[in-house]
Amino acid sequence: MAWASARQVKVLPSRNSRRSVLWNRSTFPVVVGGEVAAVLEFFCPQVMEPDEQLLEVMAYVGTQLGCVVERTRAVDALQQSERRTRLILEMAYDAYVAIDADGTITDWNAQAVNTFGWTREEAIGRPLSETIVPTVHREAHRRGLERFVAMGEGTTVNRRVEMPALHRDGHTFPVELTITPIRTGDTYVFSSFLHDISKRKESEDALRKSEERLRLVSRATNDVIWEWDIPTGERVWNESTLKVFRYSADEVNPSIEWWCERIHPEDRERVISRLHAAISGTGDCWSDEYRFLRGDGSNATVLDRGYVLRNERGGPSRMIGSMMDVTERKRVEEDQRFLARASALLDTSLDYEATLASLARLTVPSKADYCLIDVVEPSGDVRRVGTAHVDPRKEHILSREKRQPAEADPEDHPILKVVRTGEPILVPACNDSVLEVIGHDTHRSRTLRKLGLCSFMIVPIVAHGRVLGAMTLATSESGRHYSPVDLMLAEDLARRAAVALENGRLYENAQRAIGARDEVLGVISHDLRNPLNTIKLSASLLHDVAQERRSENIKFLQIINRSADQMSRMIENLLDLSSIEGGRFSVAQSQRDVASLLTDVRGLLEPLTQQKSIRLTSNVAAELSTVWIDPDQILRVFSNLVGNAIKFTPEQGAVTLRAERMGAEVCFSVADTGPGIPPEQLPHVFDRYWQARKGDRRGVGLGLAIAKGIVEAHDGRIWVQSEMGKGTTFYFTVPLTPPGSVS
Asked: Could you tell me the pTM of the whole model?
């Protein structure tokens, strides 16, 4: 406050007068919040002395005026704050609901309208429990509210909780809320923010179900699922890793290095370089097949596939994949390929000793480090026919025991035991006690130790219930151990070897039988020809003499000559059939005119057709000229075919010969008008000793078999077509050009 005289004041002129003079001025401060916010000034045109009472009054007026200003500013600030708060609440992402101590709604923002379906006007003044609390939870809500108001304690205040909420249309949905109690005097006001978490719950549920499906799929497929965080190098494995790769939980390290270290050294560089190429490129997928170290020290063959997840810049961020243990599948595939190779090998030759020796070499080293194959001789002795060792320098050790006598004790030798019992032997691991049992003497024990026997199996070679031999598969240098699965493969291989061994022995027996037959036929033909020639010579002489005596003797002499000729043809047919079956039959081909060939055939066979009043005709295609044949042998073919036609064609019937071109061949045919051949007999007409009618005495059934052999010796074909009641036609082909030429 200040009091000033007129001498101290200079007053500016007013607007209404040119000049004003004030002799006194009083100044009083207006204090707001302890600070001068304004100044009150009083002016008087008279000179006055300071009045203490007036000064006190004016000071009080200034103080009160400051209080009014302060209250006004506070009200303005509060209103502005409330407007900001309201704006914030209305713009909030969460629903805002306030209630009083009775549970009545006192505030309700715009998001609450969207969340619960009640307008602000409808909600304010309603009990909260009847508005958004589901029926089943209303009693608990009421008790909780009363307990907090009475005791200041609650389980849901001042923390984030999840609970169901009720929409105006009656459906419930999950919300996440926080309740904050505010004490106002003797009561409380409760503010809460609520957020609809339906979508989040759906996502969480979908994720949970997806993860559960992933776990179920992982268990069902037995696959190892992995996830690799590429920037950090962390690689997470699922629980199948422990079971599939035989690791304990503390042995699995969640790092990319742990995986790299367990890739087989021969595969590691290839696998890692391909993986980096996939990550560095623009593709999304990677796959590879490699060997992976198991916890027990063995190696599994795995098929590993991964999918690259990239960030918004295209860089790799994560990789998710699965590893499938395909060891068993690869083993089965390899076993099938091995058995296929073995079958092809066993089919290459009927020399069973050479074949079995090759089979022993085939098993090394893929299935064994060394292999032995022994066969049972007719005498009962066991003889070794095949040996193979991964180290050729040791094969002489395997060849020392060439033969085991039949009277040897099978308990002293495992191979003899398998041969005698027909039961396989499997020894997964050979220790000193096993070597002592199977190496019953010092020499054999020393041999087994020199071979470094590790594991072995012996399987019988059995055909039709009879043991033909035994196959031994053993490991040494590789250190592999056989299992029952390996025994199954060995037994399958032995069954295939048994077929080859039996076929080889049957072939040997057949060859010996053929040799014996040829020897007998040679003796018969030699021994029969001499008396047969004597009969024919004597009959010829008697015929000449008989013409001078009695003519009735000539009939019997002709019968003797025909019978002798028939015997001669039979001997010749037997010898030819033996040559055909033995692969020794040959033809001497030369160029021959087709038309003249059929003319010769008709001239040779017409006397036979005339006896039964059968018409014999021929037809040659105009484009045919010559053909390369052995004329004598082809005449024999026609003789056999026409002879058969005459035999089965009734009187007044017809036999027709034809020749026509068929590509680079000439096709000849002999057709008759006989009764035909039943369909079930057609496949057998070219079999030796086949006859259309059982007990037919007009032949022994060799003609068609010989005709077939002659045609095939010409590189031709022969076949038959027949229709019951209409007749039969035989066809055969011979080449137009010389052997070895190009048509």
From this structure: 0.48
